[in-house]
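Good morning C.,

I know you're traveling, so I'll keep this short. The sequence:
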Amino acid sequence: MRTDAGRKAAESGVRQQSIVRSIVLHLLPGVLILVFFVITAPLLENLGAPSFLALLLAIAFVLIPFELGYLLYQGKKRNGVLSLRGIVHYRQPMPWWQYFVLAMPLFLWSGLVMMILSPAIDTFFIDNLFPWLPEWFFIGAFAEDLGQYTRPALVLTAVLNVVLNGLLGPIVEELYFRGYLLPRMSRLGKWAPLVNSLLFSLYHFFTPWQNVGRLLAFIPLFYAVWWKKNIYVGMLVHCAGNLVGALMMLALVLRIA
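The tokens, ready to paste straight into the viewer:
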């Protein structure tokens, strides 16, 4: 007998995925990003560039090609052309004022968690679970001593951070994780956003110490996307949060470089 959530999922016309397939699709791009990062980060450090640049290059050469490419591939199979029609869901329109009413408190909450609560949580996990990782693995540590890197490397890193981590990466992630994967878990009902949040956090294999803080920061946002069936709320908050940090880094680099 179908549950209420199962009936709603069937009625929505969104084909559900098996748990195993869903887990693989959530985590596989993170594994590929980690492999790229582990290979390139030490090389870049030896060339006088921060390891954070390796993660940005992973967004350009792994994250976006894999996640957007997979969506377009599914669209090609479904529609005969490269398209996201019928592939990316949760695009129900909302009045403009609802974006402001929803996005502002969600942005403030995620910012509060990531800037005030997460640093202490992250430090605890780094000191107790990840002290064995090499120094270059901690991508944020480079900001503590920018003078050790060349000026071109710093400027390139800061600019790419704005473009890739501030805009393109979050947009693609929201299309993939909330527009494609989350609707195909809708049979889980109210648990779907929680499972999606957990798997999305684990997908960041390159910053495992941030899992708790990431969950606290973004679970409310992903529930809002699920509730309103609107991925643009997620894009707005995700991009805004990343852009604030990216623009602060750019200003710091331009001031000292």
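Safe travels,
E.
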